[in-house]
Amino acid sequence: MNANTMAAISRGVARFRLTTAVTIGVVFLSTAITFSVSAADKPRVASINNCTDQMALLLADPDQIVSLTFLSQQKVASVYRDKALSYPTNTGAAEEVLALEPDLVLAGAYTSKYTIQLLQKAGVRVETINIANSVEDVMLNVSMVGDWLEQRQVAEEIIDDMKTRLARLPDAPSVRPVAAIYDPNGYTVGANTLRGQMLELAGWHNAASDRGVLYYGTLSLESILKLDPDILVSSPYSAETWSRAQALNRHPALAQSGIGADVVHIPSAMTICGGPWSVDVIELLARERTGYLDN
Predict the structure, then answer these.
(1) In terms of domains, do 163 and 193 share one?
(2) pLDDT per position in the chain (295 positions), as tens?
(3) What are the angstrom distances between the C-alpha of 68 and each of 53, 72, 198?
(4) At CB < 8 A and 24+ separation, what contacts does 148-156 make?
(5) Rounded CA gap, 25 and 19, in Å?
(6) Is residue 22 part of a domain?
(7) Which of 68, 137, 223, 240 is 20–30 Å from 161 (CA)?
């Protein structure tokens, strides 16, 4: 093989290497740009409701969140309070939110309709979640917010985990022990609420059902004494404070009857809004039921 032939081969190899390197570089650059644009395209979100605060903190990328309500940073109201401390807060006023120029605003069923209308008139997209009255409602809210935030995969993984954990709950006994949700002022809930369904899934009979409470209501001291539940379940908003409403749970009549001896205390942040933490509560109540029957 002569020198000219060798030189030609060398030039050809060099051109191949250069072309390959350029092609690979373009592919990687194109991929990087695609991922960068994709991440940047996810909507920037402001939340003006405590329950949507929790959903945003659960599902959104950190740089998607531009503002949450001040309640998100209160321990008694927010499951993700520690995460929320990293973000600016708002009071739910439209003027505050408009200044942030979000792509999406998350609101709740009781958010002021005037605030929502003002934001929509300004061209801001507003999405609203309903109050979750069942685990199925919780999953629906997670799914919807996941879609709005373009976090479908994250939402689906959370829902799948919830379903798996619910399927592992111990079977309910043929005769269920009786539990009464008894918050300050005798506030209680019936079967058609998330907390009511929590009791049922955990294997308890809800005492409120025996008084015809289907949604939200109260149980007087006299009613509790007649119902004689096996345990009380309490989730006061301000557990470490005192009020006459809270004193009802410590009434001497309850102590004398023995009803107040077994009280399951659940942090208010875990019962105000529905989320995957609702399964934590169900699992806790199931353990309490198992422990009660074992004793």
Answers:
(1) no
(2) 554 544 444 555 444 444 444 444 444 344 444 333 344 689 999 999 999 999 999 999 999 999 999 999 999 999 999 999 999 999 999 999 999 999 999 999 999 999 999 999 999 999 999 999 999 999 999 999 999 999 999 999 999 999 999 999 999 999 999 999 999 888 999 999 999 999 999 999 999 999 999 999 999 989 999 999 999 998 877 655 556 666 667 777 777 777 766 889 999 999 999 999 999 999 999 999 998 877 7
(3) 6, 6, 28
(4) 148/43, 148/45, 148/104, 148/106, 149/42, 149/43, 149/45, 149/56, 149/59, 149/60, 149/64, 149/104, 150/41, 150/42, 150/43, 151/42, 151/59, 151/60, 151/61, 154/59, 155/59
(5) 10
(6) no
(7) 68
Token pair recorded at residue 175: 């005769």
Domain count, the chain: 2
Q: Are residues 136 and 52 in the same domain?
A: yes
**Tokens encoding 31:** 């991929």
- Copy the structure tokens of residue 119: 């934001």
| Residue 194 C-alpha from the chain's centroid | 13
Same domain, 158 and 271: no
Residue that is written with structure tokens 């479908």 in the block: 152
Both tokens of 220, joined, read 């007087």
